[in-house]
Structures are given as C-alpha cells and as structure tokens.
C-alpha cells in the first residue's frame, strides 16, 4: 500500500476522539518554531506538539470522526499532515492517555498496554544494568513546608548574594590554594577521611535534589517522585522534574536544571569560607568534605553535558533542542547512511542544527565509549569474572547492539530505495577500509615496564673479613683509583692471632735448629711447622684483607649514601658500597612475562631517565623469572626495584616477569641506582593484533591463577 | 515467562455462547522473543497425549455396553447435562463419547476405528491431529463436534471450501438431529438472516473465509450501531479446522479486507496523480528513469533531483516528504509498466484488470488506491473512487481468538514448531490403521521445461495403461503447457482448471478409474477421496507425478498423499526442470541461491530441493510472524475496540 493511505487507518477511521480533562497547555519556542506542551496533571506526563499537530489537537472535540478530521485537514493540502503522520500523532496521544475515543475500551488490550509499559521498564533495566531507578515516594509535602526557608534565594537579591558568595569563595580558594590541596590529599588518602566523605555525600545529594524541587516550585511546577538510582550499584538520589519541560520560559527551565549544581556550589562555597575560619577539629573536617564533594562531583559529573546529568538538560534548554542526545545519535546514523551507504537522508534539520548535533554526537559518543570501557576495565580488575561479564554486557549494549540496529535500519532503507547492492558495497568498502587499516597498517608495538641502572657485581666494595671500621674513610662520592685502600678494618683479635702464630713458628724453628732430637721428634716438629706456616699465611692474608681496596677506578658510593660509621662492626661478605664507574654499570628492567615471546634479537631497550633524557640500548640478554623463582636482587621492591616478592619467601617473584639486561653507553654514573621507566620495542604490529595480544594476555593471567 | 505458563492449556469451559467474552490467545508483548523460543525449542516439550489414554481405554470399554441400549435411552444419555470440562475425563466423559459413537453406528452403520476415536479425543483436547489422508477424518471431526455440542459448546467446523462444508454437513445433520442438536452450514452467499440463524446452531459448518468475513462484518456493525447491532456470530468457542495447514499456514497472512466504496476520489489526490503522471511522462528514459533488475521502473539520482525541484510546488501533504519518490515510481509503473491490453483493457469506460498468469479478466479486482487511479488517468477514463478499507484481519489473528482451536490435516509435520509457537497447537500424529504401501520412484531432473513436459506426458501414458495417474502442478500456466503436450499426443486428459469446487471434487473422485490421467493443482478437490477401481488396485493403484517444483515439501506430500490411501498400493515420482518457476522466483537468499546453483549442476539434487523448500518455508514463516506481531501491535497500542 502506498503512503497515501495508512494501512491501519481503518482502525481509527470512525472513532471520535476528544481531549481529556485536566490537561494544561503551555506555549514554547524552540529555535524559532512554536510548540505547545501538553501536561497531564494526573500522570505528570508531557507531550510536545509541533505547530502542525496543534491544529489536529484543536479538532479533537468528540464530535468529528477521524475520517471527517482527515477530510477537513485535507482542505488545506499545502500544510496538511500525511495520513501516516496523523496516525503517529493519534497513537502518541492515545498512548499518553491525552485523548479518549467514543469507542468502548478493550479491557484485554488495555491491560496489555499496562503490561507492555511495565515490560518495557523491565527491559530497560536489563538493557542498562548500571543505572537502575528505584522509586521511593512523593516529596511534595516536604517542599511545600520547607520552601519558605529558601524563598529569599530565588529573588534578584538572592541571586546577587549567591554570585557574591561564589566569587568570594573562589578568591579565597585561590589565595589559600596550598592549604586546600594539602587538606584534599589528607581527606582522600586517609580511611577516616573517606568514611566521613561517604557520610557527607548523601546529605549533599539530598540538598542537591531538593534544590531542583525548590526551583521548580518557584516557577509553579511540582516534583511528584523521588527515588534512588543505582549508578554502577552506587546509590544516587534523583527527582522526577519533568514538570519543568512545561515551563514556557527557557531561562526558568535552565534554572531548574542548574539548581542542583548551583546549590552544591553554594554549599561548598560557604563551607570553604567557614573552613578557613574554624579551628582544626571534627567540624572543620566535615566542612572540608562538603567543599570537596561540591566542587569535584560538579566538575566531573553534573557539570558535564556529555553525560545525561543536569548540565545536559541545561545545555539542551539553552540550545532549544530537546532530546539533544537522541537526535544527535539519529543525526550520526543518518550521516553514516547518507554519506557512507549513499542512501537518501531521512532527517530534515533546521539550519545550524547539523553542526551542533554532529559536534555533540561525536563528543558524547566518544566520551561514553571511553567511560564504559574504563569502568568495565576497572571492575574487571577488581572482580575478574563478574567484571569481564559486565564488560562484555556493556560492550554489547553500548556498541554492538546500536551498530546492529544501524545496519538493520540501513538495510531496510536501502531496500525501499532500491539501493541495496550499492549500499552494501559502499558500506563494505568503508568498513573494509577501516578493517584493513586496523589489521594491515603496522603500528609501533612496545611493552612498558620499569628498570634500574645498577653497578655490575664486580664494582662492589665488600668486606673480605670481619672487623671494626676504622677512622680514615673516604667520603661518599670521592674519587678512588683501583687498588686504593678505601678503608681499613681493625680486628685486634686477628692481629693477636697472627702474632701468636708468628711466635709459635719462631718457637718451632728454634726447636728444629737445635740438635739432639731424634728422627721421630724432628719429623713431628717439621709437620707442626708446616701447619703453623699455613695458618700464619692465612692469618696474614686475612689481616691484609682488613684493608679494603677500591675494585675499579671511579667514585665511591657507600651503601646508604654515607660511609659506615667508624667503630661499627662488619662481617665478612657485607657489602659496604660500590665504586661507580661508567664502564661498570648495567641496565636491568622487568616487564610482564607475556611479552617474552615477542622479544627479537634486535630488540631495543629504551629507558626514560628522570631528567627526560631517553637512552636506547640493544638488549644483551633476557630471562623469564617464573612465580617463586629468584629475582635479581637489584629489581626487588625491597631494594628499590619494581618486582614484588613473596611475603613468606623474600627474594622470590610474586608473579612471572621478563627480565632484560643491557649494557650502558656513555656515562650514566650520575644515574646509578636510579629506578627508571623502561620500554622495549617489539617491532611493528597492526592495531588489531596488538589488541588481540593484550586480550590474550588478560586471559592468560587468569588461567594461570 | 514461567515454565508453568508454557504448558498451561485452556480447558473446555461452558461459556460457549458468550458474545461478550471472546478470549484472545494473544502473545504477551513482553515475550516477543518467546515466539522464537517456542518455535525453536519449546515445541519439543509440548504436552503429549498420554493424559488422554485412560479416556480412550474407557471409551472402548463403554462402547460395548452401549450396543444393548434402546434408542430413547441413548438419546437421553447424550442429552443429560454434563459440565464441558468433564468431557475429557474418563467416567462421564467417556460415557458421553461412547454414546455419540453408538449414535453414529446406528445412523450410518459405521463403526469408528480406534485411531478415529483417538483423533476425535485429540481434537476435543485442542490439538492438531496429523492423520494420513483417507483415514476417515471427516467422521472423526463429526464425532468431536457432536460430543462438544452435546455438552453445550458451540462448535465451528471449518473447511476449505463451500462444497466440502455442505458435503460434511450432510453427513452430520441426521446424526445431530438424532441426538437433538441443531446443525447448519453457513455459505458465503447466504442472506444475513439465514446466517444469524445458522450461527445460532450448536454445530456450524462453513469455510474459513465465511467465518472470518462474518466476524469482520459483525465488528463493523457493532462499531456503527453499538448495542443495537444484530450480530451473526455468537462468539468463538471451539473450532475444528479441517486441512488446518492450508488455513493457518498457507492462507495465514492473506488479509481479509472488508471495504466499502467511498463517494469520490479526493480532489487533492487526483491533482497530485495528474501532476505525477505529467512528471513521469516528462522524464528522460535511461537518464532519469531506468528499469531495475525486477523489471520495475525506478528513478535515478537525476530523476530524484528533478522531482525535488518540481514536487514542492504541488499542493499535497506528501509532496514535501520522501514518500513522494515512492509515489513517483508508482506513477512510472502506471505510465510505462502497465500497458493497455496486457495488464488491463478498457471496457465501457472502465479499466479492467487482466490476470497475468491466466490472461483472464478480473472485473471485480482493483489495484491499490493510487495505482488504480493513476492507471485510469493514463488510460484517459474517469477516475474512480477508492474502496475504503473498513475492516482488516488475517486468518491467523481470527483463529487465535478461539478458546479452543483444533485442527486436522494429513501434512502438519513441517509446521509443528509454528503451530505450537503461534497457535499453541500441539501436533499429534495418529497412526494409520493400515501400513502405507507407497512406492517412491525418485526424482528426475531436466534442463529444459518442454523436455520435462514431454517426459511427464510419456511417463503418464505409460503408467496409465492399467493404472490411473494424477499429475500435480503449481498453477494454470503449467497446466496449459502440459495439456498442450497431451493434445499433441492425441491423448485425452482430465484437467482441473477454472471449475467449481463441486465439479473439481467430482473429477478428482473419478480419477481412480483405469487409464485416466488427471492434471490438478495441490488445492484442487482437497478432501475428496480418490476411489480406485478394483483392476487399478490390482495393477498397483494410483500413480502420482509431481511435475513441478512446489513451494514447499508439504504441498508435495499433499499431492502424493492422494495415492496409497487406506491400505491401497500407490506410487509417485517427481520430475522437475531447471526452468521451473519455483526455482527462479523469490527474494534473494544466500542459502537458496547456493543450493539452486548445486541443483543446476545436478549435485545432490534431493538434498538441494529439500533445502530450497526449507528456505522458502523459513521465509514464509518469518513473514507470518511479522504480520501477526504488527497487526496485534497497532490494536494493542490503540486499546479501543
């Protein structure tokens, strides 16, 4: 059937509709076009009718059948609606319960309509498990009772006062910026601070919602419902302020929308001014919490028009474009279908709208995707299985499902326009191009990790024997030549032992030089002398080891940054420090073990020095340290490295790592011991294979657990 | 949504005569996806007939006792009050059914077989019974109808044509009269008063179209006259649908439209049509209008640009919308697509449509509003008024209103899932009383259609030496092609073409004589038994040739199901050509096109043909589902009767 006649017109044709009682109308202008908003005083629903539909609305007097209305509208064919439009409008009005028919209601169908509405809301909840609304009650009595308290604020003088408070608070905050940031850190980083934050939060949010109610009350509307929305399972109160859409003045609508933000900012401003005056104590801490919530939550959430919170509604009222987000989505769809698939565009936009819709659509789409993925990633980090399921669900609902709808719509449109083949070919080329770019164009691929610049084991200054540190030590950083004594240990017992052995040896030789001993005795003495000689030699060596030489030419770097205090006792094998020499340094770095398979022979290790300088060295050797295996000590967390160790087995890896070593080039001695950001170049790979690799890595970790 | 809900069945309740409470078996809107689950999974778990086994056993036991009863006692037994929901309980229900059986035996002398009784019980239970053709379905339906009517349930027995309705009613009328029940047959052509009195009877026979149209008219009058309206139907309680697959599957989406002529075409529309025709004539062929792959005229981009230039000056609501493109293409069709003498002829200043398939005139039919008027403008005759649709329903929507719907057919196997998903009809196969003696002679594939027709004719002549042959084709054009071949051979054949239903049935009934060749479409003479001559039976019975690619395997089964009935021998073979319309027609589908490609290369012909059938079935099924949902959606959203 052609579009001349709607196929279901016969259902409506002989019905007489009349406007229901208790419906108020208000006139609004949107981008130069007049609209009438019908507000149902009973259900609180609102419906916006365009100028053309208003004619129809006036004709619903209960006397004319739809056929007669149609005939009457067709007397002015140039501005009459098509039958399809007419049916749409009537169905909307009937669906909202704004018009009644003279025909009998079909109870079965009516109950099914209610059923359908309920079902839709359930479906909606299923579709977005991260934002569930729970209705709690009707706040009208509270608003009526408490409005006199805030009435002064909704006057010209009140407005000026509020503005002055903002300015004062802003000035004070800038003047005391240091103090404010320190306090913020204290609150956010301490458990008690967070607890108090959680207690202050509901108070703040309740005041926020109440101020929406007050603002609406000021302009004659009412809030009939408030409740709690579970955003990411975190309860956030909400109020149902759709009455505001019936306000004729757009500034009034904007004020109702912005009331929440304004009140939060006012509270935090007052709290900040007080906070600066009050003596430290519990009261001061509480005040600061209000400052923090008021400013941070406003900036991050409510003040962000890309999310469907307060600022969005203020923005769409300001632009006079209701349903901004939905229309922006439709506009992007239409843009895709007309530009990419080459179909006839469906939307008729007013001049100037396309730019706004396009900009807003792209920004909000990108922002929402980013937010969804970030949240999903965070949650999957906390509870793995649940998080991954949630992430998959969120991706399905926010990306795959809209895309599927888009393609279905495109297919249907192409079919009616007889452009199925060219449409699909164009889309296939476009998507194929994107797909090819993702899978074929190589991009740099690298792994990130952390590393250290450490001396080689041969540069260690070690006590070869036990002893007491002497006085004449070289200072930290002093130059030393290889073999130069850096310190001398004192060990009187050692010396005494050597002297005793010397005396013993002298005595034995003396005895041997005498005559008169028999053969057996001489043999015993000679054996004893041999033993004494060896012992003496060892004792002399140990005594010589009391002098600790520098192993290389370089600067002395004592353990702990200063020489060991004189008189302290060191055991044999204790490390006292290093000699830092440019040629005796090495670079070692730890990466997630998953990258081990991708390291090539010519892989380059890139280190970012703390001063921003980048050094790039070929990898000397690589090794995978599995869970529970010994980690090179310089990389352990306990020594200042990046690799965590097992609590009960110090020195053993907590998770598997890939360790890379490289030889330095040039003089890095200034950075010896420093922990630096490291990156290893893994050659080139397409975006798709990189993504695949990271996803695999994510799941590999689980299977190992 | 709950599992219990799936298996919940309506029980027979005695509210049969209610004008006020037509219970709708509609899909709850929340469960749009339930349809899918039902169709693909849940039908496997439809309740089985086990529950009714004790009842059947008891009926068998009771039947013996009834034979000794005197006539008055028997009638009293049939008339005594019984709650309708007790009819399917062993005890009183078994006694009632046995009594009705005994009445049938005394009146007709026929003793119903066990499988016929099983069939009747299943019908009363609201199931779809699948029984091989020729097993006595008519009598089973009669038993079920009599039993239900005897407990006060108004029963509609639905047949596919008036001839069958009358024939079946003639069978049941004396039975009903004997028990003291009233029965009637409703014909399409009956006067309203006759229809009202007919619908007041306990058992009503009629065709599906009659029932649906009467329902539409009732609703229309109810709207116009309100309480004063004298309705025809008394509600929808129990429907026993004969050939249920034909009614609920083949014709399910055929819209039943009640229309009234309007006074004059609106001047605004006529002006638009004239503008559109003028625009269409001014287009440059090839540049602004082209023929698409389906042979329809379409606007090119240049043509659309041209239209966008012209259209805003037309004073019509659609002139500024994208719909005007569609209308302009319609105007192209009217101007260049439909030619006088081919698509229509002019007679007495009127456009008369010509059926493209048969070449016959169809004076009662019109194109859609818009196209018809534009053709009239092109032809230069007076523009007629539109026929306004005032009521519209599809058969599936109508039959879903019945409190209990049950069906009978020989071929329901393929539609089990759909019957369950949409009508909650569980398909219960009932075993035939004698094993089938059907022989399949296989499939022959021809490249060219004329070669196939020749082969079919030769095969038919060979088989018809001492047997009888039935040739199944799709439509009139195929019949004509085949008849021409037979004429060349100088062979006399019976053709079922453009005949009344009664004549068709008569011809089909005679098709069992030796040496007789009958050409029929799958619908012709449905419900008529082909009685075989003794010599034919001895020679191997009826031979069926399916001579074209049918739209569905079900239709093929219906055709070859005419052979080998009631334990008779029989055989069939299939002969198709690659030029058959069944292979080339239809919207694009990857699966169908790929298997057709296989078929053209003679790879796995049987498998490919089955896949083609399955694909067509799937498409038709999804179309039916969409129609149903759309139709219900609008009503539900409106909420007014």
Automatic annotation (TrEMBL), chain A:
Organism, scientific name: Thalassovita autumnalis
Keyword DNA-binding part of the UniProt annotation: no
Biological processes per GO annotation: membrane protein intracellular domain proteolysis
Keywords, ordered alphabetically: Coiled coil, Hydrolase, Membrane, Protease, Transmembrane, Transmembrane helix
Domain of life the protein comes from: Bacteria
UniProt GO cellular component terms: cytoplasm; membrane
Record's protein name: Zn-dependent proteases
Coiled-coil regions listed: 498-542
Transmembrane annotation, as ranges: 153-176, 188-207, 219-238, 258-278, 285-303, 375-403, 424-445
A GO term, aspect molecular function: metalloendopeptidase activity
Automatic annotation (TrEMBL), chain B:
Name used for this protein in its record: Preprotein translocase subunit SecA
Entries under SUPFAM superfamilies matching the protein: P-loop containing nucleoside triphosphate hydrolases (SSF52540), Pre-protein crosslinking domain of SecA (SSF81767)
Domain Helicase ATP-binding: from-to ranges: 118-354
The entry's keywords: ATP-binding, Cell membrane, Membrane, Nucleotide-binding, Protein transport, Translocase, Translocation, Transport
GO molecular function annotations of the record: ATP binding
Superkingdom assignment: Bacteria
Organism field: Thalassovita autumnalis
Annotated SecA family profile domain residues: 34-611
GO terms classed as biological process: intracellular protein transport; protein import; protein targeting
GO terms for cellular component: membrane
């Amino acid at each position: 059937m052609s579009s001349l006649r709607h196929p279901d017109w016969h259902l409506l044709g002989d019905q007489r509709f009349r406007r229901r009682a208790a419906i108020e109308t208000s006139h609004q202008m949107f981008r130069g076009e007049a609209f009438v908003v019908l507000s149902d005083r009973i259900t609180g629903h609102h419906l916006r009718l365009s100028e053309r539909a208003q004619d129809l609305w006036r004709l619903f007097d209960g006397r004319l059948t739809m056929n007669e209305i149609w005939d009457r509208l067709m007397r002015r064919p140039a501005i009459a609606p098509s039958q399809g439009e007419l049916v749409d409008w009537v169905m909307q009005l009937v669906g909202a319960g704004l018009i009644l028919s003279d025909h009998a209601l079909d109870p079965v169908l009516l109950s099914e309509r209610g059923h359908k509405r309920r079902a839709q809301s359930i479906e909606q909840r299923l579709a977005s498990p991260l934002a569930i609304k729970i209705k709690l009650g009707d706040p009208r009595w509270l608003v009526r009772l408490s409005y006199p308290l805030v009435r002064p604020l909704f006057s010209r003088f009140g407005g000026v006062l509020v503005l002055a408070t903002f300015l004062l608070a802003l000035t004070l905050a800038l003047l005391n910026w240091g103090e404010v940031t320190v306090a913020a850190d204290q609150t956010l980083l301490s458990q008690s601070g967070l607890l108090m934050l959680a207690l202050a939060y509901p108070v703040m949010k309740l005041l926020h919602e109440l101020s929406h109610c007050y603002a609406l009350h000021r302009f004659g509307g009412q809030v009939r419902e408030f409740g709690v929305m579970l955003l990411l399972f975190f309860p956030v109160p909400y109020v149902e302020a759709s009455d505001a859409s019936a306000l004729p003045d757009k500034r009034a609508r904007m004020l109702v929308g912005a009331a929440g933000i304004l009140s939060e900012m006012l509270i935090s401003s007052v709290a900040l001014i007080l906070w600066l005056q009050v003596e430290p104590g519990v009261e001061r801490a509480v005040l600061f919490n209000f400052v923090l919530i008021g400013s941070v939550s406003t900036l991050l959430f409510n003040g962000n028009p890309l999310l469907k919170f307060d600022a969005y509604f203020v923005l769409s009222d300001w632009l006079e474009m209701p349903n901004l987000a939905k229309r922006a989505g439709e506009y992007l769809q239409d843009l895709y279908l007309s530009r990419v698939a080459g179909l006839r565009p469906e939307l008729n936009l007013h001049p100037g709208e396309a730019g706004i819709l396009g900009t807003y659509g792209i920004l909000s789409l990108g922002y929402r995707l980013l937010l969804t993925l970030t949240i999903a990633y965070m949650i999957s980090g906390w509870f793995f299985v649940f998080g991954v399921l949630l992430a998959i669900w969120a991706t399905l609902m926010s990306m795959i499902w809209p895309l599927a709808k888009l393609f279905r719509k495109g297919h249907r449109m192409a079919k009616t326009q007889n452009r199925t083949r060219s449409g699909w070919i164009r889309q296939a080329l476009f998507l194929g191009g994107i797909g090819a770019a993702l899978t074929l164009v190589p991009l740099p691929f690298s792994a990130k990790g952390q590393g250290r610049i450490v001396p080689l084991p041969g540069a260690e200054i070690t006590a070869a024997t036990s002893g007491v540190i002497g006085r004449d030590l070289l200072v930290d950083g002093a130059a030393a030549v290889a073999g130069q004594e850096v310190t001398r240990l004192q060990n009187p017992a050692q010396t005494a032992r050597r002297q005793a052995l010397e005396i013993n040896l002298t005595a034995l030789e003396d005895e041997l030089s005498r005559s008169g001993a028999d053969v057996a005795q001489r043999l015993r003495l000679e054996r004893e002398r041999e033993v004494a000689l060896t012992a003496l030699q060892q004792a002399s060596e140990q005594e010589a080891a009391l002098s600790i030489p520098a192993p290389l030419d370089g600067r002395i770097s004592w353990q702990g940054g200063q020489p060991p205090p004189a008189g302290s006792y060191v055991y044999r094998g204790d490390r006292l420090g290093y000699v830092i020499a440019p040629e005796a340094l090495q670079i070692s770095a730890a990466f997630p073990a998953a990258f081990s398979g991708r390291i090539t022979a010519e892989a380059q290790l890139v280190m970012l020095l703390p001063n921003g300088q980048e050094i790039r060295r070929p990898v000397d050797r690589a090794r995978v340290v599995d869970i529970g295996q010994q980690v090179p000590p310089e990389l352990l967390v306990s020594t200042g490295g990046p690799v965590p160790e097992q609590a009960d087995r110090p020195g053993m890896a907590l998770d598997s790592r890939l360790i890379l070593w490289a030889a330095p080039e040039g003089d890095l001695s200034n950075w010896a011991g420093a922990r630096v950001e490291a990156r290893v170049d893994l050659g080139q790979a397409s975006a798709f294979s990189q993504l695949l690799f990271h996803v695999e890595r994510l799941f590999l970790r689980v299977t190992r657990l | 949504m709950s599992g219990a809900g799936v298996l919940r069945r309506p029980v027979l309740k005695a509210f049969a005569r209610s004008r006020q409470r037509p219970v709708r078996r509609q899909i709850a809107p929340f469960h749009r996806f339930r349809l899918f689950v039902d169709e693909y999974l849940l039908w496997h778990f439809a309740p089985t007939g086990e529950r009714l086994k004790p009842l059947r056993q008891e009926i068998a036991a009771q039947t013996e006792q009834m034979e000794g009863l005197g006539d008055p006692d028997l009638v009293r037994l049939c008339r005594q009050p019984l709650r309708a929901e007790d009819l399917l309980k062993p005890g009183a229900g078994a006694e009632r059914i046995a009594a009705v059986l005994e009445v049938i035996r005394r009146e007709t002398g026929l003793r119903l077989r066990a499988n016929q009784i099983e069939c009747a019980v299943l019908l009363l239970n609201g199931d779809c019974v699948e029984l091989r053709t020729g097993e006595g379905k008519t009598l089973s339906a009669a038993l079920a109808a009599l039993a239900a009517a005897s407990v006060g349930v108004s029963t509609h027995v639905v047949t596919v044509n008036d001839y069958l309705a009358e024939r079946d009613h003639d069978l049941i009328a004396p039975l009903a009269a004997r028990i003291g029940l009233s029965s009637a047959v409703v014909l399409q052509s009956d006067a309203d008063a006759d229809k009202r009195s007919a619908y007041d009877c306990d058992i009503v026979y009629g065709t599906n179209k009659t029932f649906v149209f009467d329902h539409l008219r009732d609703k229309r009058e109810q709207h116009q006259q309100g309480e004063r309206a004298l309705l025809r139907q008394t509600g929808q309680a129990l429907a026993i649908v004969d050939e249920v697959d034909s009614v609920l599957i083949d014709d399910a989406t055929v819209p039943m439209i009640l229309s009234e002529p309007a006074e004059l075409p609106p001047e605004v529309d006529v002006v638009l049509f004239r503008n559109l025709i003028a625009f269409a004539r001014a287009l440059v062929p090839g540049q602004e209008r082209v023929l698409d792959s389906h042979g329809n005229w379409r606007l090119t981009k240049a043509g659309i640009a041209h239209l966008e230039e012209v259209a805003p000056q037309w004073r019509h609501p659609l002139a500024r919308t994208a719909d005007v493109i569609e209308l302009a293409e319609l105007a192209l069709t009217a101007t260049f697509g439909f030619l006088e003498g081919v698509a229509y002829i002019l007679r007495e200043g009127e456009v008369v449509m010509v059926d493209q398939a048969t070449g016959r005139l169809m004076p009662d039919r019109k194109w859609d509003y818009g196209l018809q008027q534009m053709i009239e403008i092109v032809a230069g005759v007076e523009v007629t008024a539109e026929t306004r649709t005032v009521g519209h329903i599809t058969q599936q929507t109508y039959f879903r209103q019945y409190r209990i719907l049950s069906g009978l057919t020989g071929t329901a196997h393929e539609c089990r899932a759909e019957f369950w998903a949409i009508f909650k009809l569980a398909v219960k196969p009932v075993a035939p009383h004698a094993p089938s003696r059907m022989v399949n002679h296989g499939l022959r594939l021809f490249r060219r259609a004329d070669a196939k027709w020749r082969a079919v004719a030769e095969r038919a002549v060979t088989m018809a030496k001492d047997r009888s042959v039935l040739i199944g084709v799709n439509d009139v054009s195929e019949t004509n092609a085949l008849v021409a071949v037979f004429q060349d051979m100088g062979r006399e054949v019976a053709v079922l073409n453009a005949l009344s239903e009664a004549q068709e049935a008569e011809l089909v009934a005679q098709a069992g004589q030796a040496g007789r060749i009958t050409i029929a479409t799958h619908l012709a003479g449905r419900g008529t038994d082909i009685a075989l001559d003794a010599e034919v039976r001895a020679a191997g019975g009826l031979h069926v040739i399916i001579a074209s690619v049918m739209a569905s395997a079900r239709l093929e089964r219906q055709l070859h199901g005419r052979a080998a009935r009631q334990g008779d021998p029989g055989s069939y073979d299939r002969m198709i050509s690659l030029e058959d319309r069944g292979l080339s027609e239809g919207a694009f589908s990857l699966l169908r096109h790929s298997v057709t490609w296989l078929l053209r290369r003679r790879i796995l012909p049987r498998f490919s043909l089955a896949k083609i059938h399955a694909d067509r079935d799937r498409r038709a099924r999804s179309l039916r589902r969409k129609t149903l949902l759309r139709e219900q959606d609008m009503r539900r959203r409106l909420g007014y009767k």
